[in-house]
Amino acid sequence: MSEPSGKRKRLAPRGALVTIGIIVGTGLVLFSAFAFIPALRNATIQPIVDSYQERKARDLVKQARAHFEAQEWGEAIQAANEAYREAPEEPEAMRIMAEMCSTRRENLPRAIFFRNKIIAAGADTVEDHRGLAYAHLTLGNHRDADKALQVLLQKFPNDPGGLELLAKFQASRGDMEQATQTALRSLEAQS
Question: CA angle, corner 47, sides to 41 and 50, nearest 5?
Answer without folding.
Answer: 120
